[in-house]
Write a structure and sequence with these properties.
The protein is built from three helices and three strands, in the order βααβαβ. It is an alpha+beta fold. It is elongated.
Amino acid sequence: MPVLSVFPPRNQSVPPPPAPPLKPGRDEGEGAVVVERQTQKTEPPRLYQVLLLNDDFTPMEFVVMVLQEFFRHDLDTATQIMLKIHHEGRGVCGVFTKDVAATKVELVLAASRRAGHPLQCIMEAA
């Protein structure tokens, strides 16, 4: 029984199908839509302040350590922020995008819990 193949023999090539003819009097670009390019205006991300709240139990040295470790403040700046927290009840540790601020809050809360301190850290829109 002969085998039928849909493929041409190896040494022959199949010619490409012919292009459809253009209709007379019709331009190739007819019916094309031109879209004007519009510049997209992206807004910068909203910023959030990370704040530490004063309490009567967390040692000042721990607050300074948190400010240095998690917010990369030098000793003098960390001490100034700690004194502001102590005297005014709250102080700004830094300003970040939402995700970064939320991460910093969670890191500070976890560190204060591990150390056994009730230090509160919150974030609010800047």
